[in-house]
Amino acid sequence: SRSNKGTLVLIGAFVAMAAVAVLVAVLTTGNDKPKEEAGLSQTQPISVDGTLTKQAWDQPGSLSGNAWWLTGADGTYYFYAHLSAFAPDLAVGSKVVAIAARDAGVGRIVQQSLSFIYADAGDDWVDEKSPIDLTGATEPVVVAEARMARFAELGGTSVSLRFGLVTGNDRNTAWMFRRARAGKPIGMGSEQGWMHVIHPADVGTAVVHALTAPGGVYNVGAEPEQRRDYVDTLARAAGKERGRFLPSWVLRMGGDKLEILSRSQMVSSQLFSDHTGWYPTYSKLTPDWFDALV
Do residues 285 and 167 touch, judged by C-beta distance below 8 A? Predict the structure, then answer.
């Protein structure tokens, strides 16, 4: 029987399952032995967010059997062969996560999103109703949120968490820490611009609270931080008195990918706190956020 209590949590590159619902009910591997001479192996269930772009049916002489080609949200291509059958409501152009989750009995999806998608707001507060600036760099995030909205339209509950820049014991911060320690520039954008940051530990507690939150989109992070303060705090933790900023020409060379990191965004997480009672343990950026990197 199908459970409506399953929850699918999509956080970064990791797909974590809560309860017993598993996102494999729609597109599952067949039981036929793969054709060894073709070098094909039994395919894993489809568990990535993406769009079905091509379909092939099993027929005499076929090396793949029933197969789907899928394009992931990040542009990666996936090929799934030797499927036992096709779900009747799937077609080229179908969005995999929403339909598959519904048919697997998943009742709730918690998705990692990012607050970088908001337009530069200067010194104005940014909440969930603030305008989004769609560029090549932000489009995958906006598309992913749209797929979660589609899941809600199909009767599920979707919660998208627009996290700030994860700052602490993570690879990106470690890379910036090493640059700061070497005296290299790490700041981007206006020194007076605002940043939205979050400690890794608070990402975890936010996801737990999202398991019972009303469906919707929420900003999640610590208090807004001016870029100059962020850069200097990180630099001091790395043993420098003051941090440096990248010149504007570097940002122009970086195009959309760096532009989103230079926007001024004074983001409020109050809505999530009001609906769930969540508050960050690390509410204000301080040098101890970087203790694990020292």
Answer: yes
